[in-house]
């Protein structure tokens, strides 16, 4: 039986942010990466990191596997360098595409309870 693939709110937001920065990663591409990865690593507790080569770049997907489904936690390209922007650190791929936004002291902007609720 093929497990259904669901996307966390965080993963969907990440896809949206990347797209706003000119990097399009479709849910179909992420699903294909999970189903046929070129590399797969276990990070423990049912979490996995899989990757797929795409035109010289690498798409990495972090997901949690359950009995009946796969939950995509996040997807990103490898980080080549980062820039400090005060309350944020912006991480970029080797081609200059934004890969990850790291928010420092996030609890100044959102409560830990709200954050816990948002990532469930």
Strand and helix layout:
Elements: E1 4-7, H1 9-20, H2 27-35, E2 39-44, E3 47-54, E4 57-65, E5 69-76, E6 81-84, E7 88-92, E8 98-103, H3 112-118
Parallel strand pairs: 1-5
Antiparallel strand pairs: 2-3, 3-4, 4-5, 6-7, 7-8
Following the backbone from N to C, one meets helices and strands in this order, namely: EHHEEEEEEEH
Report the β-strand fraction as a percent range: 35-45%
Radius of gyration: 15 Å
Kindly report the oligomeric state of this protein.
single chain
Strand order of the largest sheet: 1-5-4-3-2
What's the shape? globular
Major β-sheet profile: 5 strands, mixed
Secondary-structure content class? alpha+beta
| Count of individual helical segments | 3
Structure description:
With 120 residues, the protein is of the alpha+beta class. It is 23% helix and 42% strand. The protein has 3 helices and 8 strands; from the N terminus they run E-H-H-E-E-E-E-E-E-E-H. It has helices at 9-20, 27-35, 112-118, and strands at residues 4-7, 39-44, 47-54, 57-65, 69-76, 81-84, 88-92, 98-103. The strands form 2 sheets. The chain has a 5-stranded mixed beta sheet. It has a 3-stranded antiparallel beta sheet with strand order 6-7-8, with no helix packed on it. A hairpin with a 3-residue loop joins strand 4 and strand 5 (69-76). The longest helix has 12 residues, at 9-20. The radius of gyration is 15 Å and the shape is globular. The two termini are 25 Å apart. The mean pLDDT is 80.
């Amino acid at each position: 039986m093929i497990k259904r693939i669901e996307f966390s709110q965080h993963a969907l937001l990440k896809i949206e942010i990347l797209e706003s920065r000119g990097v399009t990663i479709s849910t179909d591409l992420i699903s294909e990466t999970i189903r046929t990865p070129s590399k797969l690593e276990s990070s423990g507790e049912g979490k996995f990191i899989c990757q797929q080569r795409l035109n010289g770049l690498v798409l990495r997907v972090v997901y949690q596997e359950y009995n009946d489904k796969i939950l995509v936690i996040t997807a990103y390209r490898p980080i080549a360098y980062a820039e400090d922007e005060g309350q944020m650190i912006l991480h970029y791929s080797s081609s200059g595409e934004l890969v990850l936004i790291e928010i420092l002291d996030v609890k100044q902007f959102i409560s830990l309870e709200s954050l816990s609720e948002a990532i469930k």
